[in-house]
Amino acid sequence: MTFQDDEVIPEALTRTAFRNANEMAWKQEDCAAVIAWLRDSGYAVLGMELWLPDDDGIRTAMRTKAGPAIYCSACNPVRNERWDDYVRRSASETLDSITSFRWPEDSDEPQRAAYFNITWASRRWFREHSRASFDEQSDAETYLVRLESAMNGLWSVLKDLLRLPRPR
Asked: Domain for residue 143, yes or no?
C-alpha cells in the first residue's frame, strides 16, 4: 500500500522489515508473524511480491536459464464472500505462497535472502476505493472488475519491462 506502513504495523514487526520508501518487505521466516497480525487485526492480504534487494535497488525478477522469473500472488475476494472470511482466506493463501517459495533450480545467480512485499487493505479502504462492501453481490462484482483491470495494467507494465509472455 502507499501509506506509512509503520503507522499500522507494530514496531516489533517493522523492525525486521526491509524498507523502500513507504513500503516494507520481510524475509520468508518473518512473514508468518506479519500475516498473522494483519489477519488478527482485520486486514485482508491482497497479495505479495518477491523482492531481491541489491546494490542497484530492488529487483522483482530472479535470473534463471529460461529468463527472468517473477514470484508473486494475488488474493481476490470471491462473490458473496463475507469480509471476515476473505481476511482469513487471503492470509492463509498468501502465507502458503510465501512458505512454498523455493529458489529456482535453474537459477543463474546464487541463492540469497528473499524478501516478500505484502500488500494489504482494510475494509474501510475497500469501501473508499472500490465501493466493495462484501455484503452485496453487485459491489463485490464491481470491485473484481476494477481489480482485474488494475492487475492487467500492472501486468502490461511488467511484461514490457521484462519482455515476458503472459502466463496462462
From this structure: no
Work out the number of other CB atoms within 10 angstroms of the CB of residue 140.
23
**Residue closest to 119 by CA, chosen among 32, 49, 52:** 49
Tracing cell 510465501 back to the chain, one arrives at 98
Tell me whether residue 115 is in a domain: yes
CATH number at residue 96: 3.30.190
Distance from C-alpha of 137 to C-alpha of 124, rounded to nearest angstrom: 17
pTM, full prediction: 0.75
**118 found inside a domain:** yes
Q: pLDDT 10s digit of each residue in the chain, 168 long?
A: 434 444 688 999 999 999 988 899 999 999 999 999 999 999 999 999 999 998 888 989 999 999 999 999 999 998 889 999 999 999 999 999 999 999 999 999 999 889 999 999 998 888 787 655 565 444 555 566 667 666 766 666 666 666 655 555
Q: Are 141 and 133 in contact (CB under 8 A)?
A: no
Task: Look at the block and give the residue holding cell 502465507.
Answer: 95
Q: How many CA atoms lie within 13 A of 133 on its CB side?
A: 5
